[in-house]
Specification:
It contains no helices and 8 strands. By secondary structure, the protein is mainly beta.
Amino acid sequence: MTETAYLPFNVDCLNGSFIPAKRGGPPPGQSGHWLILQDQGLVVPDLPELGLPFGDLPAGFEGIPSVPLWLGTWQEVPCW
């Protein structure tokens, strides 16, 4: 797990490709990029290469008490 305070990015590095969620409902379906946080840390699943999980909600996180929060879109793909 990586402490979110030490993540090496900010709004500038997103270079205008991230659009925050605004008023209104989230996109249909829960699929896209996933930023999974636990105890102020980013959960990095075991993937073949370093990156965020992509697609449907990753296995093992079903039934978590918290409903996924739509953060916005990055490169036209929903971020949860």
